[in-house]
Amino acid sequence: MNARRWRVVVITAVPVLALVLLLASGIGNDPRDVPSELVAGRAPSFSLPSLTGDETISSADLGGQAVVLNFWASWCVPCREEHGALDAAWDRYRERGVVVLGVNVEDARPDALEYVEEFGGSWPLVTDPGSRTSIAFGRFGVPETFVIAPDGTIVAKMVGAVTYEWLVDKIEGALRSEATS
Amino acid sequence: MKRAVALIAVAIAVAIGATIVAGRDDPGSGTVADRARDIAAGLRCPVCLNLSVADSPSRLAGEMRAAIASRVRSGETDEEIRAYFVDRYGEWILLEPTRRGLNLLPWALPVVALVAGLAVWLALVRRRPQRDDMAVSQSERRRIEHELRGLEEST
Amino acid sequence: MTAFVGTVALAIALSLAAYGAIASIVGARRRNASLVESARTTAYSVLALVAVANGAMFVALLSNDFSVRYVATNSSVSTPTFFKVLALWSADEGSLLLWNLVLAGFVAMVAFRFRARRPETFPWAIAAMYCVVAFYLLLVLGPTTPFETLASPPADGRGPLPLLQNHPLMAAHPPFLYLGFIGFTVPFAFAMAALVTGRVSDEWMPITRRWTLAAWIFLTIGLVLGALWSYGVLGWGGYWAWDPVENVALLPWLTGTAFLHSVIVQERRGMLKVWNLSLIVGTFALTVLGTFLTRGSILASVHAFAESIVGPLYLAFLTLVLLVGFGLIAWRRDALRSEAAFDTPLSRESVFLGNNVLLLALTATVLVGTIYPLLAEAARGTKVSVGGPYFNRNTAPVALLLLFLMGVGPLLPWRAASGSAIVRRLQWPVWAAAGTAVVLAVAGGGTAGTVVFALAAFVAVATVSEMVRGVRAQRRAHATSWTEATSAAIVRNRRLYGGLVAHLGVLLMLVGVAWSAIADTSAEVTIARGERRPVDGYEIRLDGISSREEPHRRIVLAHLTVFDKTGDEVVRLQPSLNFYPASSEPIGTPSLRVGTPWNGLRDLYSSLVAVDPETASATIRFIVNPGIGLLWAGGFVTAAGGLLAAFPSRRRGVSAPEPAHPRVREEVPV
């Protein structure tokens, strides 16, 4: 009789523990960390109007160069935090043919220009009317940065502000892939 | 009694008939706007948590809606459009999980739950008592004592 | 200073709660009445101390004491006083402080309620409650403490999240939800006490009936307020996003509703004992699951308090609750045998069981849908979403079935029904359904609309006919006027009439949900100033764009005039965008014209999506939402029905089970 009682108790414990284990697997997750689909895939081609002038910059123009594609907006606070890192990376790698391309999104032109005036940044800047390129790249928000190898493969993606170390690491990787391919 | 049952049967038939007739007023889903709206309603807004692209007031969502509409107009099928977004954002962007592999679980479960529930209901409702039906059960006895004594214990 | 006071108060409260738990158990086992009594009165001290802690936080907030980290992160000098007060529960740590206050309040109320006479299970029940109190106090003293101080306090705080200082409804929604969630602790505690002591007679249910009902009413109101806030304050035009945190708040409501029905079966027939115990354990466990998912940062949600490390603690508590709760039920299985059986499938008991089955199916669907992304990630490593379309699709059919049962249930008597009695009672409702179906088919309602409204007519007529039946019986029995008969019927059968009123409330809500889901229209237009554009059968003119500075935000408004098809002005709306310094995306505030029976019950809802100052144009989303007012009205009616059912009966102290329905006497089983 006692054994039977215990058996029933144990049987009820099993689904409870299974549920708890499942819930436990979620601990430590960052629910906002959604993996990128495009990493290791081909970067979509794009053709975007300049923020400051009349010209258009397209992916074809940049062929053969490594590109750091950085989506930003003037109202975006983490964008300000990463600005220095982008500047430093641009300084270090522009001689080696790496292009930092800033894509201004979800913004008003005067606000964007004001931001550029305040924070500086001498790399090329474009806008993304209609967010077509954003969608093509699977952009979630701002800031978001893609590192693209010279052959057009997306080497890395960062959702959120980038650090100088991360940029250096990924740019080196992109340049290396050119050497080996 | 027979007449009453017949009346009810007639009423039910009328109701069902009317429902079928009402079907002719169901909105189709052919127009560009409808299709675009349906697809957008099935995609998750990347910016606003847990809202669909159709519902989200964010700017990116608005531009995604425009992108969807232009793809519908250019002749792409619903499947192709969804695949475009899944390729870029991952399965995560679909608000309803696909019906493949493990994802069958959330689709099967509601049906299983209903069927299991029906089975439980039948089993309990049919369970024959161990004692005489007409006897006063213990709880009924207690209820009677309750009312007789007017216990203050329970509120 | 305030932080110190708060922390000390909580620490003492924790030790007192521990004392209370131990003393009541020891007192129960050793039959030491004075020990139990001292454990009981400890509840008052615990409440006082937790109140002091809450007061300390209020003082810190109102006096801009930014040395307290919580104040620095959630309030600022420029925050209006009203929202400073609200900041207490706008973030994780502070809301946990409020949670503790409500919990301590409930324990004190239980202590007070049983100050004179008490059941044998009382010491164990209050011990269980003290254990719950201790857990939440531990959390608010340890990892989730709001009283952490900063070595160098900033000059100004960051201010509350913009979303949470947009509207005063933020004031009411969480407290009602907490009252609801925490209220279920009481029946749970008494159920545990019954299981532990082996006194598994049905006593624990009538004792806690009003508490359960109160918790359910609060939870109903809390959920409806949340929906109202989502609709009227956020700009997306919807009231329920099937967000994980919304879902976990719904789950205990579903099981709680099931429980409210099945306890009646147990009280009357002595059946479903294991069922009811499991339901109350499940309901309480679901409230713990709710706090776990909300605060443990497991699933992405607009509600989730982010960056909390307490996941494992909540999970441990949940595990304890589930193991102890269901373990005890399994342990006492033999004492929980059913005393009777269902007589026929066509009885009220069977319908109640059917109601339970359907509600549990809904619970399972929503629970699995909410948790499935976790499973998918654990198993396949991919992130998957389960959102609105899935839930709507899978809950709608069950909801319709429930609606049907809601109509049929009250028509069937207890135990067994004679065929002719049922058929007689079905006449009017079924013909009402048929008539409504015909009307709707003619008026172009579409399949979904016809089905829903026909079912609604069925339920409405069935419910009202039941109410009238009781009144008629009173009239016949006592030859009084209609008014006297009505009040007599209601007073003598509060539980029944309360339930019927609640059914009508739920009916209104379901009709509102269905109607607006079927017939709403939504469109987005960009209008330049002075321009007039047709939208959804109306015309909108943008009269202008203005902006206004407030201490904590900048507001940009679009001024709209809405015209109907004939060109008459219908209403002026001012949807706006609120820009907060700390936030990247602006928060929209919608502007709407509420639907009333005089304008076809149609809500005209506008929200401002974007403004382009260069071209002086605004992008407006315009939604026509028919029937949504029924959702709010229905919520109010449902709560009122619950309130009616909860009122004490005229005979002092005698609780449910309710006296036999007068109808039963005239019924002769054929």
Task: Give keywords.
heterotrimer; B: 155 residues; mainly alpha; C: 670 residues; alpha+beta; four-stranded antiparallel sheet; 20 helices; 10 strands; globular; disordered C terminus
Assembly type: heterotrimer
Specify Rg of chain C, calculated over alpha carbons.
27 Å
Report the average pLDDT across residues of chain B. Answer: 82
Count, helices of chain C: 20
- Straight-line distance between termini of chain B: 43 Å
SSE string of chain B, helix = H, strand = E? HHHHHH
Which descriptor suits the 3D outline of chain C? globular
Please tally the β strands of chain C and state the result: 10
Q: What does this protein look like?
A:
The complex is a heterotrimer of chains A (181), B (155) and C (670). Chain A has 181 residues and is of the alpha/beta class. Helices cover 41% and strands 18% of the residues of chain A. Chain A is built from five helices and seven strands; from the N terminus they run αβββαβαβαββα. Chain A has a five-stranded mixed beta sheet, covered by helices on one side. In chain A, strand 3 (67-72), helix 2 and strand 4 form a beta-alpha-beta unit. Chain B is mainly alpha-helical and 155 residues long. Chain B has helices at 2-22, 32-41, 59-73, 78-89, 104-126, 138-149. The longest helix of chain B is centred in the C-terminal third of the chain and has 23 residues, at 104-126. Helices cover 61% and strands 11% of the residues of chain C. Chain C is built from 20 helices and ten strands. The N and C termini of chain C lie far apart (76 Å).
Fold topology:
The complex is a heterotrimer of chains A (181), B (155) and C (670).
Chain A: H1 2-25, E1 47-49, E2 56-58, E3 67-72, H2 77-93, E4 99-104, H3 109-119, E5 125-127, H4 132-137, E6 144-148, E7 154-159, H5 164-180
Parallel strand pairs in A: 3-4, 4-5
Antiparallel strand pairs in A: 1-2, 3-6, 6-7
Chain B: H1 2-22, H2 32-41, H3 59-73, H4 78-89, H5 104-126, H6 138-149
Helix pairs in contact in B: 2-3
Chain C: H1 2-29, H2 33-62, H3 69-74, H4 81-86, H5 92-113, H6 122-141, H7 173-183, H8 185-197, H9 204-232, H10 244-269, H11 273-295, H12 311-331, H13 348-380, H14 388-408, H15 419-443, H16 446-478, H17 482-492, H18 494-519, E1 521-528, E2 532-535, E3 538-550, E4 553-563, E5 569-573, E6 576-579, E7 587-589, E8 591-593, E9 602-612, E10 617-626, H19 628-646, H20 662-666
Helix pairs in contact in C: 1-2, 1-6, 2-5, 5-6, 5-7, 6-8, 7-9, 8-9, 8-11, 9-10, 9-19, 10-11, 10-13, 11-12, 13-14, 14-16, 15-16, 16-17, 16-18, 17-18, 18-19
